[in-house]
Amino acid sequence: MNHDELTKLIGPVTANRLHAIGVHNRKDIESLGSVEIYLRLKDRFGSSVTLNALYGIEAIIRNVRWLDIPDDVKIRLKKEVRRSLRS
Question: How many domains in the chain?
Answer without folding.
Answer: 1
